[in-house]
Every structure is written in C-alpha cells, then in structure tokens.
Amino acid sequence: MGDLDESKINDVFDQLVSEDILVYGPHESIVRDAEGYPIEFRVCEHLTKKPHTVGAKLSSAFDKSRKWGPGSDMYCPDERLILGQLNGTHDLALNLFCVDKPQLLLLTLDSYQRQEQPLAHDDFKAAMEVLRRFPSMYIMYNCSETGGCSRTHKHLQGLRGPPFAFDYMIRASEGKAKVPFQFFTHHFSQGFFHSSDADVLKVYTKLLDQARELLGVDEASVCPHNVIMWENRIIVIPRRAGFIEGASANAGGMMGCVWVPERKNVDEWERLGYANVLRDLGVPS
C-alpha cells in the first residue's frame, strides 16, 4: 500500500464502475435549511440497489459473491475492491455502493466484530492512517442500526470532505449558531498528524461517556452514536433513532448531507419538518 494514492484509487474506481461491479452514478443535489442548519439532499437513483436496513437482502447478483469473512454480512464481488490492509487489522477497500468518488471502507479483518461496538484503539489507528494518507477525506462511523448503519460487520467509512454542515457545527460549538440536535466535539490543537492513536481514543471515550449520560445508557449496553473526524476535530452525535417514518440519516446525514434513492424521500423530510427529523433522530438541543 506504500505507493497508493487517490489517483490510483480513482483508476480502480472508474474501472469497476465501467464493469458494473461498483454501484455509482450521478445525483441530483437539493439544498434545504433546517432552522438555519444547512442540508444537502443527494438523490442517487443507483442507491435503490443498496440495502438500507440491517438484514435487508442484496440483489442475487451480489448474493453469489463471497462474504467478507465468516460472520460477515458484507460481500466482496471482486477482489479489486480491496486496496490494501491497514496495520494488519482492517481492509482498506472501495465501498460497493458509493455516493462519493471515491468512497472508502475500513473493514475489520475480524469479521465477527460488530457495528454496535464502540470504536477501539485499532479502529482509530486505521482511521488516523487514512486521514494522514488522504487529507481530502473525512472519516465517519455509524454505531448500530439506530445510528444509521445498514450492515453489522464493523466498518468505518472515508468520504471526500468537508462534511456539508461542518463549518456551521463548529460555529455552533462556539455558541455562534444553533443545531437542532446535541453533539460533542473536541479540537486537537496539535493536529491529527501529531496526535497519537491513544490520544484520540482517550478523547473519544470521554465524548462517548457524555453521549451515554445524555441517552441514559450504561456501559454494558449499546450506545447508538455517530463519529466524524475532519480537520483535526472529532464529533460524536448521540442517536435515538435510525428512521423516523420515511426519513433516515447516517453520520453523513446528521452532518448535513443526506443520501436518498428517490425524490419522495426528500418530500417525506419536508412533510415531517427538516429540523424535526434531525431532533428525532438525535437528541433535541
């Protein structure tokens, strides 16, 4: 993986798209306002092929592929999806269903690890390597189905930054704006490049404890939350729901970029009220 760069990743990406192995296509962008909080809806028709809930079946074309290890509910229809390994603990791969070019997966080699588990030291070590190697990418994690995940094999994702509402959220953390839901954040003044994995894990643990307290969840129970890492900041968003009627969001959605397969999903957000959906998916501020 020593010579891997974004140009080479994009070459593999384009080849797999041309062969209909990787699911990607154009999208319509619809920008809305949730009581001041900016939201972009990306209407991606190709996402109709994606399973949106835990346990949802893939199409028969994918079901014939090998699973990503014993106990995994993720499929690898082509070995070229795997870009390399991170520290002997994670595969770095292309996401099979993409809204960004490229969209990365950091998938645990221990395929029995689950998405309802908090992030651990090895996860942060892999995440930090990706952030340092690909500075245009941000990292996100959807903890549990309530946190917006659709597959249970533990994985983080890398997408092209910045998250849509990132600057607004930072202003909110400084008391200069208001977000419909509560979140916790920490800025690493020394930067991710000069922070150790242990430093980041320690901060995350503190933020997760705050999320547990807010949700009333003890350490023995699942704490649904989202994690975002970008521009030397980590953000933790406590979650109360993955879906509200016809509206849903993962970590990217809570950060202002909601991916939907059809225009009617945007209409459902509008019917319920954009800020109301965010409050119900998270914890009202």
TrEMBL record:
It comes from the Eukaryota. GO terms for biological process: nucleotide metabolic process. Residues 178-284 form the ATP adenylyltransferase C-terminal domain. Residues 38-158 form the Ap4A phosphorylase 1/2 N-terminal domain. GO terms for molecular function: ATP binding; ATP:ADP adenylyltransferase activity. Pfam families: Ap4A_phos_N, ATP_transf. This is Uncharacterized protein. It comes from Massarina eburnea CBS 473.64.
